[in-house]
Amino acid sequence: MKTSILPLQSEALHTKEKAAAEARPKVTTRLLFVDNLRIFLTVLVILHHLMNIYAASGGWIYQEGRQDLLTGLLGKWFTVVNQSYFMGLFMLISAYLCLAHATEKGSGVS
Length: 110
What we know:
single chain
């Protein structure tokens, strides 16, 4: 014979389940445009360093590649334009997400 759960026991179980559900971390939605922007900027960082090695005169110890005028000008143009904004965009992304993380996780100061 099965024992039936008394109403008080049922309510206690429901309260425990509710508390456990509230204790679980909240599922947050990801910002896909930010993820895609981070991927794009990471690719630009890699291309920037490759361009310093192979096309531009970046003052690096190791240089390789063609040393003609057109390649040098295109390489320098790419590195100058790329350098002017990719790190700034990384900082803007971190600043954009900083407040959301601080309010979600707290300051950590006790």
